[in-house]
Amino acid sequence: MKMKILILGAIVMVLSGCKKLMTADPENQKSIAQMYTDASYAQGFLVNAYRSIPAYYDNSDYGTDDAVTNQKNNSYLQMAKGSWTAANNPVNLWQSAYGAIQYLNLFLENVDKVKWADDVQAAKLFNMRMRGEAYGLRALFTYFLLRNHSGVGSDGRLLGVPIITNYLTVNSNFNLPRANFDECVKQIYKDLDSAEANLPLEYNSVTALGQIPPQFASTAKTVEVYNRVMGDYSRQLFNALIAKSFRARTALLAASPAFQNGSNTGTWTNAADYAATIIDYKGGIGGLASNGITYYANTSEIDALSGGSNPKEIIWRENISTNNGDQEAQNYPPSLFGTGYMNPTQNLVDAFPMLNGYPISNASSNYDPTKPYAGRDPRLAYYIIYNGSKEGVSNTVIYTGSASGTDDGINVKETSTRTGYYMKKRLRMDVNRNPSATSGKTHYNPRIRYTEIYLNYAEAANEAWGPLGTGSHAYSAYDVIKAIRKRAGIGTTNGDAYLEECKADKDKMRELIHNERRLELCFESFRFWDLRRWKQNLNETARGLDVNANVYTPIAVEERAYKDYMNYGPIPFSELLKYGNLIQNKGWN
């Protein structure tokens, strides 16, 4: 155990730049050799990387036009109000991601020397699988580094991050320059190629030799050996479908307006093609999960999860938690014994169309401002608690007006809403937070949803080929958005006339796709990054609505104070102090 602690600590020290603390201790060298005979210890390096994967629900929505929080000291709130600096960065992933990459590089340099199993076939399969996992995870962390820290450098070049593909020791050069953005994208693709070559699309046990994927058939001579390594038991580990998903995410990022540059070879066609590979695997447009719209609250489906299985909507998820009510404790309104952290804005509420599919600003929508929640997109009621909503185990009526006489009213107490709204998405309404009868339920956090990939395709296909173009595929951006809106119950009585208008205009379709992405992925930590890669306005004032009886009073809740250069995040100031070859992104000090 002492040797394990020493080497794991040494990895962290290397990444933090403390070279003088990393001495060539014979004990440390011995601990690397221990990997070769202790397969569990060797696998621990992968486990540490898994533990460092950024959270899907990171609540960065607080820093957007979709939400605010009643936590006055929240880092995203402070960031949005003007305190975002290279030294104070809530979205900094530099140290944690490079720390994980160090684990992975050390693992990859030693994986072939590990005795994974006594059985020769199983040992080779374990080697392939874990090698594939390591390459895939390295691509994952490089993607997040690129998303959070790439940008136009102070020298005018579009820069990524330092590419590190070998384990750094005390004798290594730590003063590495940033690679250009395109080089980083290609490195991600290269690692994903290696991951896909070594991994099955999904981990499923087989019943016959003919079901074993071709790349493993020459190694796995029996069903039992294949299932031992690549079967159901390995579910929720990195697989080739996850690799394809990160390829699609990376391509979408690279094609986006914020990264359009002569040195960047990424295209919208690439992004559409990569997303289409996953959609085709899912079964095309018809593969869209009918209940994916409420993935977080499909109670019977969630309660039945076992053996690492996924709901139809989910590509990858975290492990399930049972008897849990953490999200509800944080985000229920006070009357349901929650602390109401996530407060959706009127900006977001206004983005939900009417049931007939028209935006509420359109004359054909029939929107009535004296009945603002009537006849709206059903997703509004699925995702947001508004004045008059009935929620929780007792269908408690939630009154959000400042004069409502309840703790749920605007700014009544520290746990009350600031906007007149509470988040409902992510929460199960059958969780009871009453201290006299507290009960939790089964939950899981996603890592990748199929709906995201469908939306990625729609965005990229519209830019590449227009609303109705299909490239080499069987469906268009229009087809995807039509399916998503139909699933939501939009435009079912009028043929979705607004969508029919948009299909003739690439710009209008772009606005619609962006809005559908905003709605479908709200509170899932996408909006913060989408606004930046689209180069859209970051400074919309967060608004609310004070509803008292039949009086509706719009309120300004929170001003934003972002600068133009904040489309890109900074390189950590601490790293710039240590390494002179690092170039900061333009505008950051």
From TrEMBL:
GO CC annotations?
A: cell outer membrane
Q: Which residues form the signal peptide?
A: none
Which keywords, in A-to-Z order, does the entry hold? Cell outer membrane, Membrane, Signal
- Which Pfam families is this protein grouped with? SusD-like_3, SusD_RagB
Main location class: membrane
**InterPro entries per the UniProt record, alphabetical:** SusD-like_N, SusD_RagB_dom
Residue ranges constituting the RagB/SusD domain according to the UniProt record: 312-588
User: In which compartments does the protein localize?
Assistant: Cell outer membrane
UniProt domain SusD-like N-terminal: residue ranges: 29-206
Q: What is this protein called?
A: RagB/SusD family nutrient uptake outer membrane protein
